[in-house]
Amino acid sequence: MAARLALLLALALWAAAAAPALGAAQAHGRHRLLLQTTKALPQGSNSNASFAAPAEPGTSAVFDTPAAAEAANPVPAGQWESGGDTGAIYIYATLMKGGEVIGWSNKGDKDNGWTEDGWGTAVYNATSKSVELLPKCGIHDCKNAFCSGQVTTWDNKMLVFGGHGPDFGADITGFRSYDSGTGKITSTQMQSGRWYPTPVTLPDGKVLVIGGVAHNGQAGYFDNVKVNERDTYDNPTITVYDPATGDFSPDSRDMADQLEAAWPVHTYPHAMVSPDGGLWVSAGSSLVKYDRSGPTSFERVLDLPDRPHAPWSYPQTGQGVMLPMFPPYDKIEFLAMGGNVKDRATPETPASDKVHKIELTAGKDAKWEELENMPYPRVLGDAVTLCDGTIGVFGGGERGIAGWSPKPYFYRFKDGTTWDCKKLCTDVHDFLYAPTIFDPATNKFTPKGALAEHMRPRLYHATSILLPDCRVFVGGGDVSNDRTAELYSPPYLFKGPRPVISSVQDSIKPGESLEVSYTSTDPVTKALFLRTGSITHSMSFDHRSLWLTIASNANGKLTLTTPTYMVVILSNKGVPSVGKIVSVQPLGTTSSSSA
């Protein structure tokens, strides 16, 4: 069976002064919104590809509109609110199809901030600000899933690769599958240990798992890292997992040359599927294009220029994101931000404020363009594509590196609470409470001080993720013992009343129309697809988004040509609605379902 994808459908209204070309019809009252797929699009990834992706029905979700988002007056800074206790330290955060955010911490004792059972997997509901702890060791399956990488599937499962534990043990070689619908967790072992690997979903639904190291902590220039013993401690291989069969391919060295050259600043590489079914991989400062030469094999076909910057993979962790793509999706740009100002960074090394962009699809002509600096130098932040196609950057600090410090640290949070850390404390300093937002249309950031600040530092092992209601969940940080969430309402939520979705199909096939009934007082003029989020260690797996073509917008019906992902519709006030989640089936399927 071809693998399939669950997609998050969210409606938003966006200002478009030049709307006539998009068919800016009146949108007052109750309307039916049609989103139409096209079979002419080439097959793409169910989470990463630029075009049509496999997907199948799942369960749609409806969320209540936050009260803050109903404000009629603009709030240019946005607004933070407490999200309450998350039950576990959200080192990992993944949005599931029901709208819940699942997260987990490292295996540890409760006296150092972990949960009562010592494992800590929580399911958080941002609407009710409630949390449920999973029983029986949670996602870990009693084998430590810390230091892994994770992606989601069409049928509401989360796949977790790697972990933290004894060499070649069931922790570091572990694979776990979590079914959000049933709560069932299954596990097995991979061929080799993978600590800090990157999984990426391929066009046929298989999952490529890239790199990592074979032994805990063997990355970066820390004192314990045996940089001269790479052959023993590194794992520059790849493997491909097939969700349909549950099988892994044998490890191969198809990407080993790039990963070995980037050692030891090479874990959690960025991986982005290309329109032709290959992918681009960024590790350290390097950037390489690979073609898929077989079901489980890849061929290095082009070396793109290195980012003109110090290596920015862990622990010199910068932020990277593919910018929203425009039809016909033949131009794909990658944005790289921050990191450290120099290689071999230490806890005293300043963060970088540099920003670079490259057109990946330019091939041999690709080159990095330096943009204006970020308003704050930032290491260890999280980049989130927001519902209006801008990029929010959250957390981190202006000095230091990722990792645990052996030095104790006393935290005094802005909300008046404190934490006296005795061990496993912060190596990042000059904490950043202020986010910033990058606008791809102007290549500029919001200026320093323009956005509201959160109350708690979000440092090593913190996470940020877009919610279906277009707010941002920010949580975690084990170095500060943080089992809380803060919820950010971006400025677009304060520009007017929100549209409301009343019904939408649960799934569609390529070539079918997606019909959304909604009410709105403003004309719909734009639409954006976004992949649902899955993040850890500042790495958002399968992260991408694309603008859709509005084929027609008349008589209260809007037709869009859609590849896949999470769809956001926008009008002249930039106010998003609450979202629903929809599955898009693969080419060749014969059935669909309705909600």
TrEMBL record:
Superkingdom classification of source: Eukaryota
Domain Glyoxal oxidase N-terminal, chain residue ranges per copy: 143-405
SUPFAM superfamilies: E set domains (SSF81296), Galactose oxidase, central domain (SSF50965)
Source organism of the structure: Chlorella ohadii
Coiled coil: none
Record keywords: Signal
Xref: CDD domains: E_set_GO_C
Name of the protein this chain belongs to: Galactose oxidase
Signal peptide: 1-18
PANTHER family: LOW QUALITY PROTEIN: ALDEHYDE OXIDASE GLOX-LIKE (PTHR32208:SF21), SECRETED PROTEIN-RELATED (PTHR32208)
Residue stretches making up the Galactose oxidase-like Early set domain: 498-584
